[in-house]
Specification:
Strand content: 25-35%
Mean pLDDT: 91
Radius of gyration: 20 Å
CATH topology of the largest domain: Rossmann fold
Helix content: 25-40%
Number of domains: 2
Distance between the termini: 27 Å
Structural class: alpha/beta
Shape: globular
Bound molecules: adenosine-5'-triphosphate
């Protein structure tokens, strides 16, 4: 893919110190999000996906490595410029209820994003917020209601409106539909796809669900224990997975497990990856982590 990248992380590392142990949540992750694409990040719980997303939007800092927006390394910028660049990146979380303030109206919460983007006239802000509410499938008069007055799907629509308010170009969505019923999931994914086309958004879409990733994503990045083990065009990764862990994820979804030839493995032995393992290109844009020397 020759499109320029709007967000990139380079050799990102993150360790947490917890209960006397060190958890290596990210162990040298590099990837690029191209303009207008949806890059799906998939992996089991604890593989480091949320940590990657939080660092990408500036909600957490890396232990080492770089985050770049439009080619600019954030750590080289002044705090004011860094904040300005990060405004182009917004995040949508799995559980909109806990990310929304129960004591503030939804209009106020969506409006805060407009304030941070420089608007100051509350009448104008209200107008834009009502337009946003309508755009995400809610009613303008819902402006003055509180989060508890909405269903889970409606709250995720509110969270999407809030993320869009500052006018981002990059949206990191961390399991945005995992807490929703399947029929509501489809509506939210459709809405996200429409908004992407309309506003030329780039999505870093985090999920543990291969079916959801396959539905929405142009490219897929597979994470396992803080490492990127495979990345490539969605079709190539789904039809010709090269890493045993990717095959295991696909085999767990009947639709994909059956599509490929060969018997379904009874058990999978996953390779232990060392620090000096490298991503090797196996097809156009398709890379897999291999032990150095194999
Ligand atoms: N604030 C923290 N303090 C200590 N350990 C943490 C912290 N945040 C994450 N971790 C650990 O880092 C590892 C990666 O966590 P992360 O949440 O990024 O994974 P994930 O793939 O997003 O999983 P999930 O889907 O369950 O959120 C896990 O072992 C997790 O326990």
């Amino acid at each position: 893919m020759n499109r320029p990248h709007c967000l990139a992380v380079e050799n990102l590392r993150k360790s947490f110190h917890s209960g006397g142990r060190v958890v290596r949540a990210l162990n040298g992750v590099s990837l690029q999000l191209h303009q207008g694409e949806t890059l799906g990040v998939i992996g089991e719980s604890g593989s480091g996906k949320s940590t990657l997303g939080r660092i990408a939007v500036g909600l957490d800092t890396a232990s080492a490595g770089s985050v770049m927006i439009d080619g600019e390394r954030l750590e080289a910028l002044t705090p004011a410029l860094r904040r300005q660049r990060l405004r182009t990146c917004q995040m949508i979380f799995q559980d909109p209820y806990s990310s929304l303030n129960p004591r503030l109206t939804i209009g106020r919460q969506i409006g805060e994003g407009l304030l941070s983007a420089g608007m100051s006239d509350w009448r104008a802000i209200r107008q834009v917020v009502e337009d946003l509410l309508e755009r995400v499938g809610l009613k303008r008069e819902m402006h003055d209601r509180y989060p508890h007055e909405f269903s889970g799907g409606q709250r995720q629509r509110i969270a999407i409106a809030r993320a869009l308010a500052p006018g981002p170009r990059i949206v990191v969505a961390d399991e945005p539909v995992s807490a929703l019923d399947v029929s509501i999931q489809a509506q939210i994914l459709d809405l996200m796809a429409e908004l992407q086309a309309e506003k030329q958004l780039s999505y870093l879409f985090i999920s543990h669900d291969m079916a959801v990733i396959a539905r929405l994503c142009d490219r897929i990045a597979v994470m396992h224990r803080g490492r990127l083990v495979e990345t490539g065009p969605a079709r190539s990764v789904i039809e010709a997975p090269a890493h045993p862990y990717t095959r295991m994820l696909l085999d767990a979804v009947p639709r994909f497990g059956r599509r490929r030839s060969g018997a379904r493995p009874v058990s999978v032995t996953l390779p232990q990856h060392g620090d000096d393992d490298v991503l090797v290109t196996i097809a156009d844009g398709h890379q897999v982590l291999r032990s150095n020397g194999s």
